[in-house]
């Protein structure tokens, strides 16, 4: 079971499709106007035992981040990269995600008077700089000097925005909870590092998944692990919750990569593991409520089980039965996840800053208008990201 993973060039289309679907739902639940919709679509309050659609979406995406790790490492190995170079890429990608996440998180704290610009303008300029720095520019054109200049302009812009940033009472940038992209960065680092150092051995990856699950359980008790000084910075790893979810995806990625040629056996394993995760989540529920806000282990296991069983269905339909109708927009969005997630925010900032009434559908007294408007918005944003990629606006860390 622990032999080195064979190199494969086959792309599992269901992975991109499910990633695109989770992005669609992330855009939907982020846009939806809470007073006008059913509670099951929204986040459950922190101390309430339960979960709605919005409580699964982000861990669903984390699960897919972990699934992609074995394929991403294999692709770099195929290009001839050494393990040292691959690990350097993991670290640089992690730091990029954390940096972007922290900066975006602080955007809502901008004091317009002390900073010299509104929060919308600061965030708008930040997003513009992010695209300048991390855009994948064409490598075949003769404009490489221009592209390097644009990337340098983005770096200088981020430095300036960080320098002039001031929150209330003159406070500077804060780490907080790292932001969505920061959490993804920490989870990706845990999974990718584990996979590389273990050389993809399923038993070792499984042991690290169990370690992070135990850390997640301890984090909800008086035995919570804390390391002086650096503990505040390593909190996401020490709490175990996010790494546990991402590594669960990595385990399934290894299994799919190994047993893709025997789909019946693979589906059987996926079904068994998915059910075990669901059972584990409910078994822990008497001691730890289902809570996304608190990041409980019962919630993590339940989300992993839901993600895997949903993937099982999508994998069966798309990769085994070869039914591909209607998947284009989700598949393309899944291949371009960072752009799909970030690009819509620029429209928010422009509309809010200029008071353009684009979001008229956010009505508390009309559920159909609120839900329908957010669904159309999310779907339109998938196409928006696809169109951006066609004109070479495409984020790649």
From TrEMBL:
It comes from Sphingobacterium puteale. The keyword Cell membrane does not apply. This is DUF5009 domain-containing protein. The lineage of its organism: Bacteria, Pseudomonadati, Bacteroidota, Sphingobacteriia, Sphingobacteriales. It comes from the Bacteria. The chain crosses the membrane at residues 21-41, 53-73, 85-106, 112-133, 145-163, 175-197, 204-227, 233-256, 265-287, 299-318, 338-361, 367-387. Keywords: Membrane, Transmembrane, Transmembrane helix. The keyword Nucleotide-binding does not apply.
């Amino acid at each position: 079971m622990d032999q080195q993973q064979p190199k494969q060039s086959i792309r599992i289309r269901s992975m991109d499709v499910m990633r695109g679907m989770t992005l669609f739902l992330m855009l939907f639940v982020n846009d939806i106007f809470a007073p006008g919709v059913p509670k099951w679509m929204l986040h459950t309050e922190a101390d309430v035992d339960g979960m709605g659609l919005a409580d699964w979406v982000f861990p669903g995406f984390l699960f897919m981040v972990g699934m992609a790790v074995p394929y991403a490492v294999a692709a770099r190995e195929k290009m001839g990269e050494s393990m040292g170079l691959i690990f350097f890429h993991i670290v640089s990608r992690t730091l990029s995600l954390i940096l972007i996440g922290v900066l975006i998180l602080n955007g809502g704290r901008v004091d317009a008077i002390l900073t010299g610009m509104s929060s919308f303008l600061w965030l708008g300029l930040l997003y513009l700089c992010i695209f300048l720095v991390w855009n994948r520019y064409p490598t075949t054109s003769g404009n490489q000097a221009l592209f390097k200049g644009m990337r340098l302009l983005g770096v200088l812009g981020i430095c300036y925005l960080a320098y002039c940033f001031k929150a209330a009472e003159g406070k500077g940038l804060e780490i907080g909870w790292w932001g969505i992209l920061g959490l993804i960065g920490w989870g990706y680092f845990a999974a990718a590092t584990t996979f590389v150092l273990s050389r993809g051995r399923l038993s070792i990856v499984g042991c690290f998944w169990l370690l992070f699950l135990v850390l997640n359980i301890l984090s909800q008790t008086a035995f919570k692990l804390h390391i002086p000084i650096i503990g505040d910075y390593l909190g996401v790893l020490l709490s175990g919750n996010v790494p546990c979810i991402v590594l669960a995806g990595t385990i399934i990625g290894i299994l799919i990569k190994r047993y893709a040629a025997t789909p019946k056996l693979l589906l059987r394993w996926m079904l068994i593991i998915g059910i075990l995760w669901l059972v584990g989540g409910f078994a822990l529920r008497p001691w730890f409520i289902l809570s996304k806000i608190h990041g409980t282990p019962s919630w993590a296991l339940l989300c992993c089980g839901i993600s895997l069983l949903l993937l099982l269905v999508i994998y069966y339909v798309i990769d085994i039965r070869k039914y591909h109708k209607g998947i284009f927009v989700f598949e393309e969005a899944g291949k371009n996840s960072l752009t799909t997630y970030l690009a819509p925010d620029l429209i928010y900032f422009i509309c809010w800053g200029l008071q353009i009434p684009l979001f008229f559908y956010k009505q508390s007294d009309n559920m159909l208008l609120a839900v329908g408007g957010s669904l159309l918005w999310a779907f339109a944003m998938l196409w928006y990201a696809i169109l951006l990629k066609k004109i070479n606006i495409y984020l790649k860390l």
